[in-house]
């Protein structure tokens, strides 16, 4: 799919996860004709009991003209009761979403569907796809260490309670590894009693942890809940609950803008997912990345990102294996100094300082050399590396 998107064969629309069904309900995008929903059961009233993912299935099923239910016999019937299916009422008379804590239930344990809409029931036997995230390495452990030290400092300063606030970690090898370094895996935290409750729109685990989770479902159902993604990612809820969010960046620029999706500004690596929902509305918005890629040929800290998914206004903290830049309350010139000093790799630190020095001479609230701002990316495209002398980079 990624290859076809980048070749222009598939017209992919990248959206914040909280927005898709809102646009469907408002008829801003093409209606759903047929929804296919994986389930473990259908209730007598036609309610569909999902498996390990809710996502937008509830809204798709309710808005579609016809529904095909795929009963997966490899998924245990004990999954019933894991879900909390709640959908917002119509605008503009919508009532507030009554969630005031992560562990609260306000919906149904199934997706309500008119039985007349169910066009077919298909039986399948297929295991869920396990997580393919790589294990932590030295760099991600260092990133986790910097973030752990920062959170401890926030506690000592009285800005966070010792129990912190609800944590969110985005999908991806680096974010997963950092979360592992901070607090170990979610399931192991639940087992150890260090995590009170976990809420999500789906469950993706390694094969070994998946087997453990499914084998002890009755216990985990008291500590885990799956909701529609427009609820798990709802901006108002995120702001009110005061989340600390940890998401992955492909690259960050010296002023705090983040590219999460496009390599070189053109080729999609992955969609934005829910990171925009969380970053804009978090109590603390953290982005993590290794400082370099491809054995140092690519710097993840650049003068200007080649594609903007998260603007400087939505980014509080940037962390690499070299350190942490706290950007809260800083003007652009101050942010640049923090990002370069604490997050850039030594291979590129002086080049970035030279860029800022020369850009500052031209003035401006956010100093840039427009003719050089993307020169590093151009050099990478032509020579396979962002490295080289300052003169070579300036001439790229």
Biggest beta sheet attributes: 5 strands, mixed
Helix content: 25-40%
Task: Based on Cα principal axes, name the global outline.
Answer: globular
Terminus-to-terminus distance: 32 Å
CATH topology (level 3) name of the largest domain? Glutaconate Coenzyme A-transferase
- Rounded radius of gyration (Å): 23 Å
Which residues sit in consecutive blocks of at least 5 with pLDDT less than 50?
A: none
Top CATH class of the largest domain: Alpha Beta
Name the structural class: alpha/beta
Q: CATH homologous superfamily of the largest domain, by name?
A: Acetyl-CoA hydrolase/transferase C-terminal domain
Which architecture name of the largest domain does CATH use?
Answer: 3-Layer(aba) Sandwich
Question: Strand sequence of the main sheet, in spatial order?
Answer: 5-8-13-17-18
Number of strands: 18
Strand content: 15-25%
The tally of structural domains comes to 2
What report would you give on this structure?
The chain has 396 residues and is α/β, with parallel strands linked by helices. It folds into two domains: 17-128 and 200-225, no CATH class; 138-182 and 234-395, Acetyl-CoA hydrolase/transferase C-terminal domain (Glutaconate Coenzyme A-transferase, 3-Layer(aba) Sandwich), CATH 3.40.1080. It contains 15 helices and 18 strands. A hairpin with a 4-residue loop joins strand 9 (251-253) and strand 10 (258-259). The chain is globular and about 70 Å long. The model has no long low-confidence stretch (mean pLDDT 91).
């Amino acid at each position: 799919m990624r290859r076809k998107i980048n070749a222009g064969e598939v017209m992919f629309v990248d959206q914040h996860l909280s927005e898709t069904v809102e646009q469907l309900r408002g008829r801003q995008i093409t209606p759903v004709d047929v929804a296919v929903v994986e389930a473990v059961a259908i209730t007598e009233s036609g309610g569909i009991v999902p498996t390990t993912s809710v996502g937008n299935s509830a809204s798709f099923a309710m808005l579609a003209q016809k529904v095909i239910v795929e009963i997966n016999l490899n998924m245990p019937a004990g999954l019933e009761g894991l879900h909390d299916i709640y959908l917002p009422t119509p605008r503009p008379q919508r009532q507030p979403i009554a969630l005031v804590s992560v562990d609260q239930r306000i919906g149904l344990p199934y997706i309500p569907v008119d039985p007349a809409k169910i066009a077919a029931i298909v039986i399948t036997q297929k295991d869920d796809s396990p997580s393919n995230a790589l294990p932590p390495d030295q760099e991600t452990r260092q990133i986790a260490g910097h973030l752990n030290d920062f959170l401890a400092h926030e506690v000592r300063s009285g800005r966070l309670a010792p129990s912190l606030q609800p944590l969110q970690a985005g999908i991806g090898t680096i974010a997963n590894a950092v979360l592992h370094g901070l607090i170990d895996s979610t399931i192991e935290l639940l087992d150890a009693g260090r995590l009170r409750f976990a809420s999500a729109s789906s469950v993706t685990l390694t094969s070994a942890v998946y087997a453990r989770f499914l084998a002890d479902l009755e216990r985990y159902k008291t500590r885990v809940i799956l909701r529609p993604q427009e609820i798990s990612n709802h901006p108002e809820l995120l702001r009110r609950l005061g989340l600390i969010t940890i998401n992955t960046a492909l690259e960050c620029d010296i002023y705090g803008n983040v590219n999460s999706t496009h390599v070189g500004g053109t080729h999609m690596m992955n969609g934005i997912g829910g990171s925009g929902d969380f970053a804009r509305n978090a109590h603390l918005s953290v982005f993590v990345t290794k400082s370099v890629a491809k054995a140092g040929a690519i710097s993840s800290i650049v003068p200007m990102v080649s594609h903007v998914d998260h603007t400087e206004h939505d980014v509080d903290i940037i962390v690499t294996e070299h350190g942490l830049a706290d950007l809260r309350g800083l003007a652009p010139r101050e942010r640049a100094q923090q990002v370069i000093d604490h997050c850039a790799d030594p291979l590129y630190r002086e080049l970035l300082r030279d860029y800022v020095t020369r850009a500052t001479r031209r003035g401006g609230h956010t100093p840039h050399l427009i003719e050089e701002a993307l020169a590093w990316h151009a050099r990478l495209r032509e020579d396979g590396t962002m490295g080289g002398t300052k003169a070579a980079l300036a001439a790229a």
